[in-house]
Amino acid sequence: MSNTATEEQVLQREIARLESEGYDVFIQPRAPLVPEFLGDYVPDAVATGHGKKIVLEVARSLGSEKLKDVAALFAKQREWELKILLVTPTSSPKTIPVQSRETIDDAIEEIERLEQLNALRPAFLLAWATFEAEGRASIAETFDRPQTPGRLVQILSQEGLLTPAEADRMRVLSDLRNQLVHGDLGAEIKSEDLLWLVAILREMAATGNLSTSPSLQ
């Protein structure tokens, strides 16, 4: 693993390996793909095949309380197993600095200009980059390194910065983001989704709190 690997790269490598072995893999799955005993917890991925059901979690440390709590849920499970994908220190990317308010505002304006030109795909990808930058500005100590879209949405939701409905829609949009960045050039980006995401960014910029962001339509 190179020293520029990210959590997403670690996850994608494992997904590629499992799929080559005939497993079906679902990124940031929701019910009914997630086992009931996990409750509202959204794992990084779920793999099924060969009579196995596997929950995949990417972690930087085996000692985190959150990971211990998740692992404890599997202690008495026979149908499901937990596989932790550890990002070792040698593969950890450099920390990413918190972006200035001016830089983030400029990015939002660029997204809006791209949308007006009907350049929806580049605008959508820049919107996701800006969303991560906004999240890092809100919780710098948690998002100091590159984030997977699923973890970004999950933690912002846990911290009360996304409502449950907003988090659900963001997960749907993260699926589109993943399709696009991994080469599915046919992924359809709708203007209404992009504008909703821009509204979320504008609300973050104005208040630093997503809980009052525009409601779903």
As for the CATH topology of the largest domain, it is Four Helix Bundle (Hemerythrin (Met), subunit A)
CATH class group of the largest domain: Mainly Alpha
Which ranges are low-confidence, i.e. pLDDT below 50, for 5 or more consecutive residues? 209-217
Could you estimate the helical fraction of the residues in percent?
A: 40-55%
Helix and strand element order? HEEEHEHHHHH
Which secondary structure elements does this structure contain, and how are they paired or packed?
Blueprint: H1 7-20, E1 24-27, E2 45-49, E3 52-59, H2 65-73, E4 81-86, H3 101-116, H4 120-138, H5 149-158, H6 164-181, H7 191-207
Parallel strand pairs: 3-4
Antiparallel strand pairs: 1-2, 2-3
Helix pairs in contact: 3-4, 3-7, 4-6, 4-7, 5-6
Could you characterize what this model shows?
The chain is an alpha+beta fold and 217 residues long. It folds into 2 domains: 7-91, Trna Endonuclease, Chain: A, domain 1 (3-Layer(aba) Sandwich), CATH 3.40.1350.10; 101-212, Four Helix Bundle (Hemerythrin (Met), subunit A) (Up-down Bundle), CATH 1.20.120. The chain is built from 7 helices and 4 strands, in the order αβββαβααααα. The N and C termini lie far apart (43 Å).
